[in-house]
Amino acid sequence: MSEPLVIVGNGMAATRLVDELTTLVPGRYAIAVVGEEPSLAYNRVLLSSLLAREIDEDAVTLKKAEWWRDRGVTLVYGRRAVEIDTKAKAVRLRGGSKLNYSKLVLAIGSEAVRLPLPGADLPGVVTFRDKSDVEAILSRARTGARAVVIGGGLLGLEAAYGLMKAGAEVSVVHLMDRLMERQLDCEAAGLLKAALEERGIQVVLNAESEAVQGRRKVAGLRLKDGRNIPADLIVMAVGIRPNVRLARGADLSVNRGIVVGDDLATSDPDVYALGECAEHRGTCYGLVEPAYEQARTLARALAGKPASYEGSLLSTNLKVSGVNVFSAGDFLGAPGTEPIVLRDPGRKSYRKLVVNEDRLTGAVLVGDTADALWYLDLIRSGAPIGALREDLVFGRAFAEPQACAA
Amino acid sequence: MNAPLQAKAVKTTCPYCGVGCGVLARPDGFGGAQVQGDPEHPANFGRLCSKGSALGETLSLDGRLLHPMMRGPAGVMARAPWDDALNAVAKGFRETIARHGPDSVAFYVSGQLLTEDYYVANKLMKGFIGSANIDTNSRLCMASSVAGHRRAFGADTVPGCYEDLDEADLLILTGSNAAWCHPILFQRMLKNKRERGARIVVIDPRATPTSDEADLLLQIAPGMDSVLFSGLLAYLADQGVLDRDYIRDHTNGFSEALARARHIAPDAEAVAEQCNVPRERIETFFAWVAATRKTVTLYSQGVNQSAQGTDKVNAIINCHLATGRIGQPGMGPFSLTGQPNAMGGREVGGLANQLAAHMDFEPGNVDRVRRFWDAPAVAPRPGLKAVDLFDAVAQGRIKALWIMATNPVVSLPRADAVRTALGNLELLVVSDVVAATDTIRAGAHILLPAAGWGEKDGTVTNSERRISRQRGFLTTPGEAQPDWWIVSEVAKRMGFANAFNYASAAEIFEEHCALSAFENGGTRDFDIAGLGTLSHEDYAALDPVQWPVAKNETNGAKRLFAAGGFYTPDRRARFVAVAKPKLAAEPGRYLPLLLNTGRIRDQWHTMTRTGKSPRLGAHIEEPRIAVHPDDAQSFNIEDGAFARVSTLHGSAVLRVAVTPSQRRGEIFAPIHWNGETASDARVGALVHAACDPISGQPEMKATEATIAPVQFAMHGFFLTRKPVDLPTGVWWARSTVEGGFGYRIAVPSSNTKHWADIARDLLGNDEIYAELLDEGQGRYRAAIIRGETLDACVFLAKSPQALPGWEWLKQQLAAPSLTEPARRALLAGRAAEAGTDSGPVVCACFGVGRNAICRTISDRRATSPEAVGRELKAGTNCGSCIPEIRRLIAETEAQPQPQAV
Q1: Which pLDDT value is given to residue B659?
Q2: Residue B1 has what pLDDT?
Q3: Which chain B residues are closer than 8 Å to A363 by Cβ?
Q4: pLDDT score at A406
C-alpha cells in the first residue's frame, strides 16, 4: 500500500521532486499534486521567451499530462490549498475537499512584490511572475507601446527583454547605481547596461519610483527626482516574497520563508518545504537551481535514503538577447583575494575571477560565458587550482585541454 | 599593375661576408626581388646562406635616406638640394684644409663600398687632398692579415683559392666560426669531410657551431695562437717534415723563426700549458698536421682582431712556408675576409698605410702614383689608422670627417668615446643608405643618400681574390646616388674636376686596372692589366675572375707562390720570428673576466639591412651574453635573466645565456645591436682599444670585464605594426617580424608606474584594447585589435619564465585577419588545442557550447533535447536553451555530418 504524499504547488520544484522521487522509489508513494494555476506545470524561466514570442505555450510546459499519468500522480490543478491540519495530517482545498497525507511537501513558491505606489492599482500596472502575467502584458504590449519595467534585477531584465522582443519601447528603472547589483560588479553591470541599450532598452539608474501616473489607466511613472517616464504599461519586478500564509496558518515555524532543516523538513517532521517558499539556514533562494538541488535531496529523504542539503552556492545566469551574463560566489572579491581580470571590449567580453589561497572563490562573466559551469564547479568543489591558474581565465580549453578534447 | 612574371635574373654578388657568393636577383616589379644563388658562380655554385637567402626581405625603403640633408642653424636636419649639400661638403673640406692643412681632414670608409667607390675616395684623399687619412672599417677586420701577408710575402696576397677547401685533407680553422660567419665555405668544407674524409680541426676559445662539426677542438686560451703554431713549427722541424728545398730556394729567416718558436713553445707540454688545452689534444693536432701535406689553415677575426694579430698570421704562414704547403692544390694559409669588399678596398689602397694598388709609401711608389694620377699633392706618408684616426678626432686634430657606409659609433672600440668625439667635429659628413644610425645621431652635419645593394653597380673582390660584379637591378630610390658619383662631385667642387670627371663605374674600373699595371713589370702582385682593356659592355658582362690577370690574359691565377716568386725585393718569402704572445688585457688586474665579441649567424654588422628581415630576426632575437655555468654561479646571474657587462670603457645590459661552450672566465657578446635596435647593447662601447703595433687592428676579443645581475621589475614583449619610441629606462631589443616589429622589454623597478600605464605608454594612450590583469600572479597583457587585425600587443610578467612564447602571436600579427578562435585566444598567447573549442555557449547553465552539442548530435545520434541532456547536461537545468537545442538537432540532421572543428 503506497503512502499518500501530497505536494502543494505545481511548479518547477514540485515537478523535479516528482521526477526524482518516482525514479528513485517508483510506487512507494501515492502522489497528489495540488496547483493553484489552472495548467500543467511549466518552466517559469521561459516566461520571458514566451513574452518575446520566441516560443509557444507548449514549449514552456515541463511535462505532458501522460508523464504525470505514467507516474500515477493525481494532478489537482486550478485548486488552491487553504489549510493544513497537521494533527489530522490533511490539507483542505478551496471548495472544501480534503486530502489526507502521510507526508506533505510545500512547494508553493513566492509571489511578486508590488510597490505600494500611488496609482499602483491602475490598469496597466502588472507584475511578471506567471503565465497570466504574460497574458496581461502581451495584451498591452502592442508594437510601439511604451513599457516601463521597475527593477533592474534578473527578473526585471528578463521581462524587459521579453517586452522589447514583443515590440514595446522599453525602459528599465532601477533604484541602484547599477543593474543586477547583487550579482554583478560595476564593470559587468556597465557592460550589461551598454548591451541592453544597444538593443534599444533604455536603462535609468538611481531611479526611485514615486508614483504611477494616469487617471483611468497608466500614463507614466514619476520618479522622486521629478523625472517623468511616459508609459502604457508598468511591470513591477522589484522582488519576490515567499508564500508563507499556508504554513503560518498551520503553526509551522516561519521567518521570511518556511524554515526547513538540512533534511528539508519544517518544524513538523511530516511536512517539508522546498523551493522559493523555503528558508534554509536563513536563506530564501529565488532561483531554480537551488530548488532542483533541494528536490534531489528531498527525494532521497522521502525515499528513506541519507540526505542532507547544505545550501546552494548562488550562481546567476542571464541570457538576454545574446548577452550572456554569469556570476557566482565572491564575485566582488573580499579583501585579501586576488582578482584576475580579462576584458576585451571588442568582443564585448569581460571575465573576472577571484582567487583566494589557490582556490577559485568567485567569478563574473559577461559575453563569453562558455566556461561558467567549469568555474562554478571549481568554486563549489573548493579544489586547489594549482597549475590551472596560469590559464584559468582563458577557460578550460586552455587550462585543461585534455579534459576538453572531444 | 602586374609584375613581370619571368623577369630576367640579374647576376650580382651578395653584399655580406667575404665569401662573395653569386646571386641571381629577379626584380618583382614592386621594388623587391626574388633572390637565389647563382649556380654558375664559383664561390657558391648556387648555394646561399640564411642571410643571402633573405636579401629579398631587406630591400624595402623603410628607413632609407632618400635625399641629401643638412643641419640648419637651429640644429635641425632638413632636406637640401644635392648641389647645396655637395657644395657645403667641398667648401667645408677646402676651408678646413686651408686653415689647418690636409691632415686635419679624414675619410672613414667601408668594406661595403664597391671597388670603384673606394678607388675614387682613395684617389681624392691621397692624391688630391694630399693626406693619407683615409682608413676603412676593414681595419677592424683584415688589417692583421694584410700586415702578415706583407711581412711574409712582400704583398697582401692570398695565395690559395676556394678549391683548396675541396681538395685539402686537413682543414684547420683558427679564430673562425665559419659555420655562422662564412656558411657557404663551411658547407664546402663539410662536403669535403663527408665525401673525401677530410679532417676538420677548430681552434677557438669558444665551442661554436663550427666546432660541433670538427674532428678536434682545441679550446685554447685567448690570444695563444702564436704559441700553438710556434709549437707546431718546432714539432714539424723535430719530426723532419720540413720542405728543406722550399725553405732554401724561396725563403729567408727560417732559422731565426724556428729558434724563436722553440723558445716560445719547445714542446707539446709547453703548448698545452700556455694554451690551457690537454696535451693529448695538442699532440693529436701536431701529428695530424705532420702527417697531412694537403693542409689548409683558415683564419678570421679570432686571429686578426688581436693586439698580436700580425704575429699570429705570421706564425701560421711560417708553418706553411716551412712545409712548402703553399700555392698548391689543397694547401696554404687562407684568410677568410669579413666583408664583401674588404679585398677590393685593400686593392685600391683604402687602408691608411697603403697608397694605392698594393703600393706602399716608398718614395718611388709615391712618385709613380703622382705621375699616373697627375696629382698635385700625393700623400707622402701613411695616414691615421682607424683607432688613431678617431683619437685624433677626439683631440681636435681632425676637424672634418666624412664617413661612408659604416657605423663607427657602434663598431669601433670604445664606441662611447667615438660618439663623444664625433660631436667635436667642425664638419661631419655621412654618406649612407639609411637615415638613422648611431653615427648619424652622433652629430652629422650633412647626410648624403647613397645607392644601396641592388641599385649600385661595380665590382667587389672576395677572399680568394675573385673580382665579381655587383649589378643594379632596382631603380635607385629618391635622390640616392652611387658613392663614386658623390665623391667625384665633391672632388670637382674642390677644384679637381679634371681628375674626377667620371661618367660611369666602368671608367673608374678601367683606370684602376691601368694603375695596377702602371710600371708594374711583375714587381707587384696586384696586376689586373688584362681587365684594363675591357669595353664597357665587357665590363658590364664581366664573369667572376681571380687576380692577377696579366696583360692580354682574361683568366687570372688560381694560386700563387708554389714556386716562390714573392714580392719582396729578393723575391723570397720571409719567415717572421714572432713575439711571445701576451694579451693586452690581464684578467684580474682591474676586472675579473675577459669579454670576447663577434657575430651571430643571421645578422650582419649593425643590422641596418639584415635587421629588416623577419626570418633573420627570429634566429637570435635579442643580444645575449654567453657565460660559463661556473661564472654564472660566482657572479650570481641566471640563464634568461639580465646582466650588466662592464669594462673600463663602457657597459651594456644583456640577456644572460649560460653555456658550457664558454671557457670559464670568458664571456661573449654579439656586435650587432646598437642604439637603433636595442636600448643598452652597444658592445663596441665596452671594447678596449689595444691595437696590434703593426697592423693597428684593435683587440676586440679580449677586454677585461665584469658582470653583475640586473633586476627588472617586469619582463615582457611587445609586438607592433609600427616602430615606437620606448619610454626612457625601459630595456628593449627590437627585431623585425612579419608585418611589424617585436620588442623584448624589461622594466626597471625604479619605474613605479602601474603596468597598465606602462602598456598604455607603449600602445598609445587613447586606444580601446583588450587586457588581462592578474596582479596575484604578476601578469599583465594587452592587445589592440583594429578591425579584424592585431595591431599591437604587450605581455608583461614579473619574471621572464612567466611569459609565454611569442611565436603564435607573431603569426597573428602577420595574419591579414584574425580567425574567431585566434581572436578569442589572443591574450592567452597561444591557440587552444585542436578539438577543445566548444564554440559559442548554448546552455548557459552548464556551459555547453554549440560545437559540443553538434558533435553529440552527429556522433552519438542524439535526436532529442533529452538525449542531448543525458550526454551533456545541456538544457537540463533551467531549460531555456532547449528550443535552441531543438533547432540544432533539426539543422544537424538536415545537413549531415559537418566535420566538427
Answers
A1: 96
A2: 39
A3: none
A4: 47
Residue B129 and residue B267 in one domain: no
Domain that holds residue B762: 712-828
The answer on B779 and B650 residing in a single domain is: no
Residue that the C-alpha cell 528513485 belongs to: A24
Residues with Cβ within 8 Å of B44's Cβ and at least 6 positions away in sequence, in order, are B19, B21, B22, B37, B38, B184
- The three-class DSSP label of residue B643 is strand
Query: Residue B159: what are its φ and ψ, rounded to 5°?
Result: -70, -25
CB contact under 8 A, B768 and A345: yes
**Average confidence (pLDDT) over B605-613:** 87
pLDDT at B226: 97
Residues 6+ away with beta carbon under 8 Å from B124: B107, B487, B490, B491, B494, B496, B500
Question: Which tens digits make up the pLDDT trace of A329-361?
Answer: 998 999 999 999 999 988 889 999 999 999 999
Provide the pLDDT for residue B6. Answer: 58
| Contact call for B883 and A49, based on CB within 8 A | yes
Contact check, Cβ <8 Å, B827/A342 = yes
- Substitution target in A187, A288, A319 with the highest count of B β-carbons within 10 Å is A319
Q: What is the pLDDT of residues B176-190, one digit of tens each?
A: 999 999 999 999 999
Is the CB of residue B878 less than 8 Å away from at least one CB of chain A?
yes
**Selected residue of A340, A360, A389 to mutate for chain B interface (largest B Cβ count, 10 A):** A340
CATH numeric code, A125-236? 3.50.50.60
The SS3 assignment for B851 reads helix
Cα gap B304→A67, rounded to integer Å = 95
CB B261 within 8 A of CB B291: no
Does the beta carbon of A389 lie under 8 angstroms from any beta carbon of chain B? yes
> B163 and B284: one domain?
yes
Quick check: is B517 in a domain?
no
* Average pLDDT over every residue of A372-395: 91
Chain A closest CA to B719's CA: distance in Å?
Answer: 18
CB-CB under 8 Å, A340 with B777: yes
Nearest-by-CA chain B residue for A403: B836
Same domain, yes or no: B134 and B158: no
Average pLDDT over chain B, rounded to an integer = 92
Residue A320: predicted pLDDT: 63
Same fold, A3-111+242-302 and A324-404: no
* A324-404 maps to CATH 3.40.50.300: no
Domain ranges of chain A: 3-111+242-302, 125-236, 324-404
Q: What is the rounded CA–CA span in Å between residue B21 and residue B187?
A: 13
Structure-block grid coordinates of residue B316: 701560421
With beta carbons under 8 A apart, name residues in chain A contacting B826: 344
* Predicted TM-score (pTM) of this structure: 0.86
Say if A285 is an interface residue toward chain B (CB within 8 Å): no
Same domain, B772 and B879: no
Could you give the ipTM of this predicted complex? 0.84
As a whole number of angstroms, the distance between CA B824 and CA B832 comes to 9
Where residue B412 falls among pLDDT bands split at 50, 70, 90? very high
- Chain A residue closest to B855 (CA)? A406
Q: What is the DSSP letter of B124?
A: I
State whether A391 and B849 contact (CB < 8 Å). Answer: no
Between CA B250 and CA B327 the distance in angstroms is 13
Q: Residue B860's CB: how many other CB atoms inside 10 A? A: 13
For residue A342, give the nearest of B772, B830, B841 by CB distance: B772
Per-residue pLDDT tens digits for B190-211: 999 999 999 999 999 999 999 9
Does any CB of chain A come closer than 8 Å to the CB of residue B773?
yes
Say if residue B435 is in the same domain as residue B362.
yes
Q: Residues 170-189, chain A: which have Cβ within 8 Å of B?
A: none
Tell me: pLDDT of B128 over 60.
Answer: yes
Residue B265 is part of a domain; what is its CATH number? 3.40.228.10
- What pLDDT digit, counting tens, does each position of A201-214 carry? 999 999 999 999 99
Instruction: Classify domain A3-111+242-302 at the CATH class level.
Output: alpha beta
B882 touches chain A (CB under 8 A): yes
Average pLDDT, chain A: 92
Cβ–Cβ < 8 Å for B799, B827: no
Quick check: A324 and B849 CB within 8 A? no
Residue A291: closest C-alpha in chain B: B877
Instruction: Tell me: pLDDT of B5 over 60.
Output: no
Q: Provide the pLDDT for residue B900.
A: 40
